[in-house]
Design brief:
With 759 residues, the chain is α/β, with parallel strands linked by helices. The chain has an eight-stranded parallel barrel with strand order 13-14-17-20-21-22-23-24. The chain starts with 7 loop residues before the first helix and ends with a helix. One of its GO terms (molecular function) is hydrolase activity, acting on glycosyl bonds.
């Protein structure tokens, strides 16, 4: 043991409190957990039920590898160890050493030789330096049970530490934006990936929170038209030892260790205290622009892995409470996440940690919502995923957490983990069925047009019976995990060789289609088809009921060269490229106009599901499904899995919707025509020729919006192979009463005057 350490803990055996050289020790308080600083000093509090003693180790800011003080936390109240150090300045590094029983077979892993990061640390210091000391057992052994032996090498010089910080900040009146869910358009992005190559941001600031709050980046997001940015993990996470050795980096960040600290690599500032302020400034600037901030949070597991993993924090503080252990084999971990461990949400203290973290990010960091990675793992009871889980119940009764946007990734890798449609009210979900059904339909798979109709109309089959609304469905074609939209139509197979796993990683079932050639080609017909397919998917996404989520870069056709699992590609493979070709600029303009059309027309983002029936004793329906021959879809059409063409009439005049003042919302009448068939299909335009004219707004065979073409009812419209079209009904003078109303409604024209069309 180094003689430079002031072992206050030894002197405390005579006098527990008082002045010990240059430092003073008081009992402190068990709440709040973590390191809570004020001008009077800092209170340290950490939970551990099984530890028999807890030490606080302190390190100076300018020499974080050298332990200066080791102080015994003499008080334990309600299983929380606590101590107060008066007059301590911000910037000090700290960690804990937990004493207790070493009995891996019983899940007890107390090893005071390992410095442990505070799960409640609000700022973190230098990165881990990987080596044998970071593991609680001797890693050089080759026997399977080598993890049962204690490794007594001190990890403190190599371990990342918590940092004492001042969290005060002038928000200048900033508040959460609280955009209604049905009006929300989400942009899934990465702090570094979006800004690393942005030419308008100073080079030293690129890839950071400061860059994301830069006026040029904010203007881009506003101009695109999105209302919320969903950031991939920004909780402090660990760079995996395996990736570091391969010369790679964990880019996605699904490897959390501390749930209150922003990841320091994404900060332009050097000091942890300034990094926290930088994050807050970013949020404040985004809010000024009307953009909500949603965080992708990873509470289902940590970077400590399984029984062969390192000891970094919770594993050493209280393994039995923080992690799910195999019953009757507590040396092993239940792995519902595919990462080696699963945080135990049935443990009150683990649950408290997650809730405290969520409240902190809402109240202290002003974020507007959360997307919960592998949320099914959080909602598990003893075994199964359940709507009545403690995790869900606690969130629902919390007056702060329950009022922000809550989005579940509704699956994990355990049995019964696929829970799309299974979460309760208040929750929205990444709708995996939307992604799969839309991709399959457009590729030509025999899924049945009924599945597509459900997805277009808000997935009422998944959400309506549980009392939820279309906003429960987060619709997405692509996400960070998988092909980009451009790659979805450039590759049949994944190409993940750069990840160093012999292309064995990543999803094999992508519903992708290379349009005839694998990868880049100079064939103009194939490239034109690929662009058309991208436009088809973008149109589908933005005219569907629910909440659209656009993945960073899909608006211009970003490629990852066929890599569908770029989790370790912190480079140009993953980063947003701001240098666009003319073709990419056209796709971006197309996407921006699509978003504007959606925002301008409430029929595309209804708060409630369609009724599909008469409203207010009228003869009108709010939605009508039409065959290519112009007639209504029948039962046989819905059950025919070979049907590849469909018309969807959206009746904005009969929306059962009201604004915040209780005023009835009305909109235009739109006709959406989808043709996923590989040949041209002629659609008879619904209505009566003397009354009805359709204005062509969108045609996926071109990047122009609007198309500015009028189509008469009763005539045939040639829908090109694999194309999508949107029309708006124009009122003709012959069908107008004196006060501007229609003499004959469009639904009546389709239903009652079909015979006239036939004649």
């Amino acid at each position: 043991m180094s003689k430079t350490i002031n072992l206050v803990c030894e002197e405390q055996q005579i006098n527990a409190y008082g002045k010990f050289g240059e430092i003073e020790v008081w009992p402190g308080s068990p709440y709040p957990l973590g390191a809570t600083w004020s001008p009077k000093g800092c209170n340290f509090a950490v939970f551990s039920e099984g530890a028999t003693r807890m030490d606080l180790s302190l390190f100076r800011e300018d020499a974080p590898e050298k332990e200066i003080y080791r102080i015994q936390m003499m008080e334990q109240t309600d299983l929380v160890w606590h101590v107060f150090i008066p007059n301590i300045e911000t910037g000090w590094r700290y960690g804990y050493r937990a004493h207790g029983e070493w009995n891996p077979n019983a899940g007890m892993l107390y090893n005071p030789h390992k410095l442990l990061l505070d799960p409640y640390a609000k700022g973190v210091g230098e990165e881990i330096q990987w080596g044998p000391a970071m593991f609680p057992y001797p890693i050089k052994g080759k026997t399977e049970n080598r993890f049962l032996k204690m490794n007594k090498k001190d990890s403190a010089p190599f371990m990342t530490k918590g940092v004492v910080i001042d969290t005060s900040f002038d928000w200048e009146g900033d508040e959460l934006l609280k955009h209604p869910m049905h009006n929300t358009i989400i942009y899934e992005a990465h702090v570094k990936g979006l800004t690393q190559l942005m030419p308008d941001v100073p080079a030293a600031e690129r890839g950071t929170y400061k860059a994301l709050g830069h006026p040029a980046v904010i203007e881009y997001l506003k101009n695109l038209g999105v209302t919320a940015i969903e950031l991939m993990p920004v909780h402090h996470f660990v760079q995996d030892d395996r990736l570091v050795k391969m010369g790679l980096r964990n880019y996605w960040g699904y490897n959390s260790l501390s749930f209150l600290a922003p990841h320091p690599d994404y900060a332009a500032a050097d000091k942890p205290e300034d990094q926290v302020r930088e994050f807050k400034v970013m949020v404040k600037e985004l809010h000024k622009a009307g953009l909500e901030v949603i965080l992708d949070v990873v509470y289902n597991h940590t970077a400590e892995g399984n029984h062969y993993g390192p000891m970094l924090g919770m594993k050493g503080l209280d393994n039995q409470n923080y992690y799910r252990l195999v019953q009757d084999q507590e040396q092993f971990y239940m792995d519902y996440t595919g990462t080696g461990n699963t945080i135990d949400m049935t443990s009150p203290r683990s649950l408290q940690m997650v809730m405290d973290s969520l409240r902190y990010w809402i109240t202290e960091m002003h974020v507007d919502g959360f997307r919960f990675d592998l949320a099914s793992a959080l909602a598990r009871g003893l075994f199964e995923v359940g709507k009545l889980s403690t995790f869900l119940d606690t969130i629902h009764q919390d007056p702060i957490i329950s009022q922000v946007k809550l989005i579940a990734e509704p699956w994990d890798v355990g049995p019964g983990g696929y829970q799309v449609g299974g979460f309760p009210v208040l929750w929205s979900e990444w709708n995996g069925k939307y992604r799969d059904n839309v991709r399959a339909f457009w590729r030509g798979d025999a899924i049945g047009v009924g599945e597509l109709a459900y997805r277009l109309s808000g997935s009422s089959d998944l959400y309506e019976l549980s009392g939820r609304r279309p906003g429960a469905s987060i619709n997405f074609i692509t996400a960070h995990d998988g092909f980009t939209l451009r790659d979805l139509y450039s590759y049949d197979d994944k190409h993940n060789e750069a990840n160093g796993e012999n292309n064995n990683d990543g999803e094999n079932h992508n519903h992708s289609w290379n349009c005839g050639v694998e990868g880049p080609t100079n064939d103009p017909e194939i490239n034109a088809l690929r662009l058309k397919m991208q436009r088809n998917m973008l149109i589908t996404l933005f005219i569907s009921q629910g909440v659209p989520m656009l993945t960073m870069g899909d608006e211009y056709g970003r490629t990852q060269n066929g890599n569908n699992n770029a989790y370790c590609q912190d480079n140009e493979i993953s980063w947003f490229d701001w240098d666009w070709s003319a073709e990419q600029r056209a796709l971006h303009s197309f996407t921006r106009k699509l978003i504007a059309l959606r925002k301008d027309n409430p029929i595309f983002h209804r708060r409630r599901f369609f009724n599909g029936r008469t409203i207010d004793d009228s003869n009108l329906s709010d939605i009508l499904w039409i065959r290519p021959d112009g007639n209504e879809m029948g039962e046989g059409d819905w059950s025919d899995d070979q049907v590849r063409s469909l018309g969807m009439l959206l009746n904005g005049e009969e929306m059962d919707e009201y604004d915040e003042r209780g005023q009835r919302i009305k909109d235009d009448i739109f006709l959406v025509v989808l043709n996923a068939f590989w040949e041209t299909v002629k659609f008879r335009m619904p209505g009566v020729q003397e009354f009805t004219r359709w204005e062509a707004l969108i045609d996926s065979t071109t990047d122009e919006i609007p198309v500015q073409e009028d189509i008469l009812a009763g005539g045939e419209y040639a829908a090109a192979p694999r194309s999508m079209h949107v029309f708006r009904l124009k009122t003709r003078t012959a069908n107008q009463t004196g006060d501007g109303h229609r003499k004959v409604t469009i639904v009546d024209q389709v239903r009652k005057l079909w015979a006239m069309i036939q004649e």
